[in-house]
Amino acid sequence: MIKSSEIADLLLQVRPGYTLPRELYTSESAFIFDTQAVLKSVWLYACTVAHVKKPGDWYVFELANNSVIIVRGKDGEIRAFHNTCTHRGARICNSFKGNNARLSCPYHFWSFGLDGRLLSARGMPESFRKAEHGLRPVALENLGGLLFICLSDSPPPIDRAKADIAQQLALYDLDRLKVAEQCDLIDDANWKLVMENNRECHHCESNHFELLNSLDGSGFGRDFPEDKDGGGETAAKAATSAQRERWRQLGIYQDLIEFPDGWWHRIARLSLAKGAVSQTMDGKPACKKLIWPHGDKEETSLSIWTQPNSWHHFCCDHVVTFSLVPLTEDKTLVRTSWLVHEDAEESVDYDLGNLTSVWKATNYQDRRLAEFNHAGIRSDGYRPGLYSEEERLVEAFKSFYVNTAKASLANA
Ligand code: 3BY
Ligand code: FES
Ligand code: FE
């Protein structure tokens, strides 16, 4: 078992531009430190507003021993509560989603309103005040339809991320979407390696045949697509500038937003490859009912990456969101959800296989890579290795982790 002084020593060994020391990826103590300190001190992406679309819809987000109920009230408000009964502590919601008019504990049937208030409790003494026994709230914020929770009693600021993300996502109106498919994958790899893998496309060319039908991997991780050819005027650069001018005219142009002032979000509008207008196998929309107002001719998608546990892609016809949760030091849950227009009908407007095939294939490929990475790092022969220039966003993730970890130790 590593003590916190040993975690501190490991963090001190971390060098800029290099991967982490082995034990920070592989030890049980680092996993406990990550889930009990690091990840409790930050905002975590849980799900979207479409996952709790109707009043009474609830969704459970779990991190190690903690379980959080995200629930939409009769008033339409979305709130979050610890999934532990205020009677004798039983877990109230015991599957990962549902719809109920009240939240009833299965043990002695205390019943709670969707706003967390205790409504009924049998046989309690006369002095008992129901108002004092409501569910304990968890901090929740809605960032343009993406729901984030924070398990700390004093969550860090979120205003800048909220403003930037909400501004970009207004175009896609997540309130009008529904979840068409959700899929869980468990990677036998540490969560930080699964995240690192997401933050580079250095591995894309030889691994992501399906994804590269629509995504141009070569620009990923560089400053911005038009910078990838260096300073000179090239045909590719001219084409990119022309396209961005078109976006500007449509009012969808945005500069790259990348961890502004030390924030934890990155937003980029990407040019899709090979004439694709959506991230599908044939590059065509997978759903007939579009979710944005600009038709199906724009060769573009919007992406949002947040530290430390999510990434999201917004196409003209669908959204794919990814939430990542560590399960043990060498197991990570990658939960992927595909959202389409609420009026779209399966088999009429979209085929589920066609909608999900690119990212299902990509997730399997990435799982294999993260597992190879974890297995190799366990070796006595492993030493922290140097990131390439295409891996600067991996370094950005790693330093976010290290800085948050150091701050958690300092505040302990
Ligand atoms: O989904 C992503 O954001 C990254 C970029 C390209 C590959 N990768 C899985
Ligand atoms: Fe929930 Fe008793 S523990 S009603
Ligand atoms: Fe990948």
UniProtKB/TrEMBL annotation:
Residues annotated as domain Rieske: 44-149
Named cofactor requirement(s): Fe cation
InterPro entries found in the cross-reference section: ARHD_Rieske_2Fe_2S, Rieske_2Fe-2S, Rieske_2Fe-2S_sf, Ring_hydroxy_dOase_asu_C_dom, Rng_hydr_dOase-A
Source superkingdom: Bacteria
Gene Ontology MF, one: dioxygenase activity
Keywords: 2Fe-2S, Dioxygenase, Iron, Iron-sulfur, Metal-binding, NAD, Oxidoreductase
A family per Pfam: Ring_hydroxyl_A
Keyword Iron-sulfur found: yes
Protein name, UniProt field: Aromatic ring-hydroxylating dioxygenase subunit alpha
Source organism per UniProt: Novosphingobium beihaiensis
